[in-house]
Amino acid sequence: MPRSRQSRYSSEYRLLLERLVALRGDESQTLVAERMGTSQSMLSKLERGVVRMDLSDLLSYLDAIGKDPLEFITDYLHAINWRPTRRKPAAAPRSK
Fold first, then answer.
1. pTM, 2 dp
2. Residue range 37-65: average pLDDT?
């Protein structure tokens, strides 16, 4: 199945959430949620995968826990052994 079609419960997504929670460490959900500008209950839903985390959420989360997004994403991509798929270039539009 293409990576973009996988469920939010895929092993790769679960690993993403587990790594985020591990990075949060001893900081409370309440404190991190406050820094993110959201509620503790919403943060809990994000961390448990009940609500899918989008890129904006991810960046806000990493900022709230003081982690570098580029470093996190690079480490995560290595952890899941991600490799770009080869795609054919899009066809140029035909001129009339």
1. 0.79
2. 97
Q: Exposed, middle or buried, 44 (CB in 10 Å: 0-12/13-18/19+)?
A: middle
Q: Are 21 and 47 in contact (CB under 8 A)?
A: yes
Provide the CATH number for the domain formed by 8-79 in this structure: 1.10.260.40
Q: Do the beta carbons of residue 62 and residue 68 sit within 8 Å?
A: yes
Show the DSSP H helices in the chain as ranges: 11-24, 29-36, 40-48, 55-64, 69-79
Are the C-beta atoms of 46 and 36 separated by less than 8 Å?
Answer: no
What does the pLDDT look like over 16-38, one tens digit per residue? 999 999 999 999 999 999 999 99
